[in-house]
């Protein structure tokens, strides 16, 4: 039984393929004014459902920024828990949360991703609000596990929503959302800074409750997204095709390794600048700002040429080369005098960011393109596991290699990312061969 009336469902299987330029022209033809001007310049999506989902995602990511910047300080300075216990609880919860991705993704495939996304975000909001009652290590573990399970569930449901609403080019739409998310997380982090500066119980509780409100508002906005009709499942299809898809599992592992690059600029580089170079300390923030500005301005532009699995494989290979060059530049800053180190690090950040943009575009395209239409949620949940494990493993690995070994360690990281990038096109061709021999 469908959850809502069929005439209010969004089924893109019958939508004709058309170019992005045609979508933009159509949007302009529907009327002038500010909206048409913004669409023509790529500042807002072409259609109303895309804009609504972008708004829901933007609000959600503001909440994420609040939580990332202030949660750990709430637990240590307001609740009074030791840093070691907070770190253990957050790390364990992040790993446990990954377990929700595949089963919730399958539920999204069968019951509709919009409904599952809204439910996950509501649970996320309620569990975050429950953090204000945390008084012990065990209660912290219980609450943050629910938060992470809901977060993982929302990520799994977001995949098929993005693919359907973003048709015929979901990679470009996902790139737009990524640029928007960077702005939103930054706004949330800046707002959290107010609570951190005030440094009182009331301020920290307000931060946590503000996060919950953002999540609830995101769920409310998402209610305006058209329901997505589930895709029919092939009669001979498996209940859990993602786990049996060897090329996709391999791609998930490779992408997880390459996702370690996300920790380079936010974890390894700041510690490298302060402890191993003569660059001024304030440059830590400047390097992050350069990266954020480039992502916001260039992510959509970089993704325009990534329209097939083959092109995504080529871009992933290019990303690996960029990461090796970037790590070599950052390593070279270790022996350079002050302002020379600044210039070298800026070059390293720019090159690394280009690799990040290429990696993101390839990751978006392959996560959609190598997954069957009827199991996008399940595959999205699997793909998120690789990225989640990377976020857990990345900091300690970079700490040992880049900060412990110094310059040689940076080169080892770059070489690892280079090799992974070269393997991605091979996995793409493997997947294409498997689909030819198994058309069902």
UniProtKB/TrEMBL annotation:
Residues in domain Major facilitator superfamily (MFS) profile?
A: 49-433
| Transmembrane helix in keyword set | yes
Q: Which UniProt keywords apply?
A: Cell membrane, Membrane, Transmembrane, Transmembrane helix, Transport
Entry protein name: MFS transporter
What InterPro entries does the database record attribute to this sequence?
MFS (IPR011701), MFS_dom (IPR020846), MFS_trans_sf (IPR036259), MFS_Transporters (IPR050171)
GO CC annotations on file: plasma membrane
Q: Where is this chain's protein located in or outside the cell?
A: Cell membrane
What's its membrane topology? Multi-pass membrane protein
A Pfam family per the record: MFS_1
Glycoprotein as a keyword of this entry, yes or no, is no
For molecular function, the Gene Ontology terms on record are: transmembrane transporter activity
Q: Which residues cross the membrane?
A: 52-74, 86-104, 139-158, 179-198, 204-222, 279-300, 321-351, 409-428
